[in-house]
Amino acid sequence: GVFAHLEMLEARAHEAAVKQEEMEQQEEKLAGLRARVEELRLQRDELRAKVDLQQKGQLGKEGVVPNPAQPSARAVLEWKIKSLKALLELFYLTGISGKLTKRGVCFCISTAYEGTYLDSYYLDLLTKPEVQIYRHSVPVFIPLQQIAKKYLQTDIRRFLSVLYDHLNAYVGRRYQADQLQEHFSDQIEGTLQRNSLCNLLVFNYNVPSKSRTFPFNVRLLYGDLCCSLPTEVVISCTPNAPASLAETAAAHSDLFRRVALHKVFGSFSSAEESVD
């Protein structure tokens, strides 16, 4: 038992060291990304300013009367291409990549949860005569059209960022539910009930024990669709459960709000091992 305990401690220490190193690498990457974002924003602002001056007929050499003619279609198109290339370079480091197509640009949104890469979704945009969605693989329950209506024509960077948040939060919620069913099925009664968006989960559960009863019923509601943690947790005890379990249910409710679903059940198992 002592050796097993030591091995467990060593494994946890190694895992903590790996996570610390990953966090440091992510912080460095984030710092570089922020610097690049500022650089690209400056370039974007300069390009916009030049196009605005051209459109107003105010761009000309010193001492020369500016040409009041509107910028050519080619000049506007070149500006759009440069802006798109800047966007592609920026989002490549944030889980969003893409390539220019004959009609516009095709984005690939890669999702992940806690360092585990999950699904990728594709979005094909047309850029002329105006930016519009040509085809995509985004699930129907993601509010793509509402996000597009709000941001697509005015701020494509914001559009992609919001869409990414929705997709990443969805796969995070789904991943947690899958991990719970895969690794802690003995603590759940029947099948975990969830909707397509995985923003409503309902199930009965028990903490690790010799008893096969499942005294707790939990309802997890994820009111923020860009978040992978629940905004509302309701835990009730079955009618025949001891009154003393009400305090345990309250403690569990706080855990579900702060910790990933499968990790909550992992903490139950760890607590049981400590007692043993």
Automatic annotation (TrEMBL):
<dbReference type="GO" id="GO:0031511">
    <property type="term" value="C:Mis6-Sim4 complex"/>
</dbReference>
<dbReference type="Pfam" id="PF09496">
    <property type="entry name" value="CENP-O"/>
</dbReference>
<keyword id="KW-0137">Centromere</keyword>
<comment type="similarity">
    <text>Belongs to the CENP-O/MCM21 family.</text>
</comment>
<feature type="coiled-coil region">
    <location>
        <begin position="6"/>
        <end position="57"/>
    </location>
</feature>
<dbReference type="GO" id="GO:0005634">
    <property type="term" value="C:nucleus"/>
</dbReference>
<keyword id="KW-0175">Coiled coil</keyword>
<protein>
    <recommendedName>
        <fullName>Centromere protein O</fullName>
    </recommendedName>
</protein>
<keyword id="KW-0539">Nucleus</keyword>
<keyword id="KW-0158">Chromosome</keyword>
<dbReference type="InterPro" id="IPR018464">
    <property type="entry name" value="CENP-O"/>
</dbReference>
